[in-house]
Write a structure and sequence with these properties.
It contains 10 helices and 12 strands. It has a 6-stranded parallel beta sheet, with helices on both faces. The protein has a two-stranded parallel sheet with strand order 6-9. It binds NADP nicotinamide-adenine-dinucleotide phosphate.
């Protein structure tokens, strides 16, 4: 991973929204460790659906140079029956942020692999057509369009990522790892492929993007390689020295969750790498690094 010491001192003023969330926390931690001036605002401190709040926050942060929006409605299944709320946070707020950042700050907005249909057989490039299959995916697609479309000429970067896990908050790695450590069997789908991405790796790359001399637009940034959730769970059992036989393959149809997930949502990092931005590690190496670095905190 890119260590704090490797983050170039930028003299930028950073504002991180959704700072109580998994990615937001890692961003604030890394920026503080690199002694960058950063203001991290949780949902209670900044509601990103409120333009006046955003204006005040950017002013209070002493005039942020880079705003990283990690605030989101991320309860994918709940969004099916609560789509208006998801749309407000994921679809509407990125446009407000783009407007308030226009001519003042670079905006980095985080989006998702769930904007894709999931019927591809090779990694999605940034220009691949989107076809969200869930209310969450549709709301995130609206947010991409709002962030990129409302302020032509603005310094707006939308970064799609995938399958995040971290040392805080709910995630697949935390839930499955916790059960495996207790010797419990887990049924894990073997028919969805993606790239599990450690928030700390992503946070370091978003910080690099914050100061990079690159044209605004759409980016993909997730761990390299690909796997099914089942393969990820088996790898996790190896890392945790648990019995891999506890991981049992199942299908998405058998689990019957309210929101449809893309069957294949691997993102191509080709544009990111071609722009000279720091490459992401392979998901398997990152998982080993996360377990080594975070210990029990990853799966408690
Ligand atoms: N998690 C994944 O697997 C994944 C995959 C691809 C992309 N992403 C994207 O990556 C970004 C970060 O995700 P994450 O995993 O860090 O999510 P997270 O842990 O759920 O964090 C999101 C944060 O946003 C806050 N929030 C919700 N509504 C808000 C509002 N109106 N104003 C301000 N803050 C608000 C949430 O607060 P509450 O908890 O109080 O609601 C939460 O603290 C999101 O854009 C997400 O869509 C995530």
């Amino acid at each position: 991973m890119v260590a704090p010491a490797q983050i170039q001192h930028s003299l930028m003023r950073w504002l991180v929204t959704g700072a109580g969330g998994a990615l937001g926390r890692d961003l604030v931690d890394l920026l503080r460790a690199a002694q960058e001036p950063v203001t991290g605002l949780t949902r209670d401190e900044l509601d990103v659906t409120n333009a006046e709040d955003i204006r005040r926050a950017i002013g209070d942060a002493g005039g942020a140079d880079v705003v990283i929006n990690t605030a989101a409605y991320t309860r994918v299944d709940d969004a099916e029956s609560d789509s208006d709320a998801a749309e407000r946070v994921n679809g509407w707020a990125p446009g407000l942020l783009a407007i308030e950042c226009f001519n003042r700050a670079r905006l980095i907005h985080v989006s998702t692999d769930y904007v894709f249909g999931g019927d591809a057989t090779e990694p999605y490039e940034v220009e691949a057509p989107i076809s969200p299959q869930s209310a969450y995916g549709r709301s995130k697609a609206s947010g991409e369009a709002a962030a990129l479309g409302l302020t032509p000429g603005g310094d707006v970067h939308v970064v799609r990522t995938a399958w995040l896990y971290s040392g805080s908050g709910p995630s697949f790695v935390r839930a499955v790892g916790g059960r495996l450590r207790q010797g419990q069997a887990v049924d894990v789908v073997d028919d969805q492929r993606g790239a599990p991405t450690w928030t700390r790796d992503l946070a370091a790359r978003l910080i690099a993007l914050g100061t990079a001399d690159v044209a605004p637009g759409l980016w993909h940034c997730s761990a390299a390689g690909e796997a099914s959730w089942f393969e990820v769970a088996v790898a996790l059992s190896e890392e945790l020295n648990c019995d891999p036989a506890l991981v049992r393959p199942t299908t998405s149809a058998a689990l019957q969750r309210p929101a449809k997930r893309p069957a294949y949502s691997v993102l191509s990092n080709r544009k990111w790498i071609a722009a000279g931005l720091p490459a992401m590690p392979h998901w398997r190496d990152a998982l080993h690094e996360a377990v080594t670095t975070l210990g029990d905190a990853l799966t408690d």
